[in-house]
Specification:
Elements lengths: L31 H11 L7 E7 L1 E2 L11 E2 L6 H19 L4 E9 L7 H12 L3 E12 L6 H9 L2 E9 L3 H7 L5 H14 L3 E8 L6 H13 L4 E6 L21 H17 L3 E3 L3 E3 L4 H7 L4 E3 L2 E3 L6 E4 L4 E3 L3 E5 L3 H9 L5 E6 L2 H16 L1 E3 L7 H12 L3 E3 L3 E4 L7 H6 L3 H4 L13
Parallel strand pairs: 1-4, 1-13, 2-3, 4-5, 5-6, 6-7, 7-8
Antiparallel strand pairs: 8-10, 9-10, 11-12, 14-15, 15-16, 17-19, 18-19
Helix pairs in contact: 2-3, 2-10, 3-4, 4-6, 7-8
């Protein structure tokens, strides 16, 4: 059982897939023209390919735990019109980039990408890759629902270069699956894994969540041991983000159904030890990988990166998000698309980039962004060239006292204990949160 004094750190905290985090973007100083300029500058002198994230929002049913931007429907006639809008958005961006570009990696997320038929996914990929080069060592990946992923889905995407898939499992317990409305059997998962391995997929990830309603320690142990027996290459073990003020679907259950803070922390530590004992390497925050997986190799080489999709071994000067609510990152600027399918398609049909908001990073933002990214990926920070501001050092004091951080004149190091509290540690660097006096809850709790 972990030390209960750590439960004091279970406060609202960002996951730091960006800095500034989205709630603190200053869109008053941002325009779509400034975003385009930043995007163009990001690829001006680079020889590396860009990254593409495609948001495919449709699902046939609502998973009540989900915090993603989704559209629930059983009408599959929505597929092709949406794909046509995504491909038109891509053509608009290619025209703005003023150059031939290569693609470094592609990720299909959602929603449920496997909601789309194999034929329509083929049409999407043909349109994305038309007259586009792919960079050396490129990686294509997609998220999949084990219960609706067919052999044809796997074969179609494999033919376009996809070699990694992420299976959204969350929990194997039938009662937990019932209350979160996310149902797939171990047999569904085993079938998809076996088919993917036979085709030639080289990396399979499981998404698991702790802190879901009705979860118990025994159930968590059973889920983790069953998952490990299937030998995924990676395991992402996330804390459930309870944000019913943003996602009304989470009101299908109440806080009384959720585990208490100390139980949730125990779920995390228990599962973490089981996963590590099975030979997985602890990667950053919430991620584990076999030592031979690219994520583990990047971590050992100091080349781990983190973006809006989480940890990755790929880093590009430009991450371009296509589709409703997708977020783009040009390092010095962010941009997010509108959040409804109707508005997205309307803007695209009028030849307007479907942008909702963004942020232009200041010099101070860029310094803090690099610091937080380095800590999230490497667990340490070289201070030889730049001392930390006194206010940051003061905010780090509790973590130093609790043995989570070691701070010297030359270096900040996150300890093995602190690795589980990276969200909290990075908050000490976050000037946006430090200066926020509204006391408004903007994030889910740290664990």
């Amino acid at each position: 059982m972990p030390n209960t004094r750590f439960t004091k750190y279970n406060i609202p905290a960002p996951r730091y897939t960006s800095y500034p985090t989205v709630p603190y973007w200053d869109s008053s100083a941002w325009t779509s023209d400034l975003w385009v300029q930043a995007m163009q500058h990001a690829v001006k002198d680079t020889t590396e390919g860009i990254s593409l994230y495609i948001h495919l929002p449709y699902c046939e049913s609502l998973c009540t735990y989900c915090g993603c931007n989704t559209r629930i429907t059983k009408n599959h006639e929505v597929e092709l019109p949406y794909i046509n809008s995504v491909l038109k958005e891509w053509r608009m961006y290619r025209k703005l980039l003023h150059r031939n570009i290569s693609v470094n990696d592609i990720h299909l997320g959602g929603g449920t990408p496997t909601f789309f038929s194999p034929e329509n996914l083929r049409f999407l990929m043909e349109g994305l890759l038309k007259d586009v080069e792919t960079a050396p060592n490129t990686e294509f990946s997609f998220e999949a629902h084990p219960a609706n992923t067919s052999l044809e889905h796997l074969e179609t995407l494999y033919d376009f270069g996809f070699r990694r898939l992420s299976l959204g499992i969350q929990d194997f317990n039938p009662e937990v699956q019932r209350i979160i409305n996310r149902k797939q059997s171990p047999a569904d998962v085993i079938r998809v894994i076996q088919q993917a391995r036979q085709i030639g997929y080289t990396s399979i990830n499981f998404d698991l969540i702790y802190g879901l309603p009705l979860q118990t320690l025994t159930g968590i142990e059973e889920t983790i041991r069953l998952a490990i027996a299937m030998m995924p290459d990676r395991i992402a073990y996330y804390s459930y983000a309870h944000v019913p003020w943003l996602k009304p679907g989470q009101r299908m259950f109440t806080e009384a159904d959720l585990p208490k803070d100390e139980d949730k922390l125990n779920f995390y530590y228990t599962a973490k030890e089981i996963i590590k004992a099975a030979g997985y390497m602890d990667i950053g925050m919430d991620h584990f990988a076999f030592p031979t997986d690219n994520l583990a190799l990047a971590s050992r080489a100091g080349k781990l990166h983190r973006n809006f999709m989480g940890y990755t071994d790929k880093q590009s000067s430009l991450l371009l998000g296509l589709g409703v609510s997708a977020i783009s990152d040009g390092w010095t600027a962010f941009a997010q698309n509108v959040k409804t399918v109707e508005e997205y398609k309307k803007l695209i049909n009028n030849n307007i980039l479907p942008l909702l908001k963004g942020h232009i990073l200041t010099d101070s933002d860029l310094i803090i962004r690099k610091q937080i990214l380095t800590i999230m990926c490497n667990g340490e920070l070289d201070l030889k060239k730049e001392a930390l501001p006194p206010a940051t050092v003061k905010r780090l004091a509790p973590f130093i006292a609790d043995g989570m951080v070691i701070l010297t004149d030359d270096k900040l190091s996150v300890t093995s204990i602190g690795k589980s509290f990276l969200r909290n540690i990075c908050m000490a660097f976050d000037e946006k949160i430090a200066s926020d006096k509204t006391n408004k809850t903007r994030f889910s709790k740290a664990f």
